[in-house]
């Protein structure tokens, strides 16, 4: 039985990091620097910089702070992180997933 490919579509899509979304959708439009955001959140500037550069994942702590600051629902940035991580893993192990046959209920 041939299973539908779930990797074909994701291979062609861009997969922005939560940091790219933070920078492009929040910081730039608001004219907010990484340092100003870090000060407002009470976190080291390096944390924000590493998230923006895609070198650090968004933690629950950072998510709660960002959500509070931007008036978003708790878990917003964690959701972005989970979506990013899932797509990256799907790209990495997609061929292996094709060999797993789903178990019937």
From TrEMBL:
Keywords: DNA-binding. Pfam families: HTH_3. It comes from the Bacteria. InterPro entries: Cro/C1-type_HTH, Lambda_DNA-bd_dom_sf, Toxin_antidote_HigA. The keyword DNA-binding applies. PROSITE patterns: HTH_CROC1. Gene3D superfamilies: lambda repressor-like DNA-binding domains. One of its GO terms (molecular function) is DNA binding. Residues 31-77 form the HTH cro/C1-type domain. This is Transcriptional regulator. It comes from Candidatus Raskinella chloraquaticus.
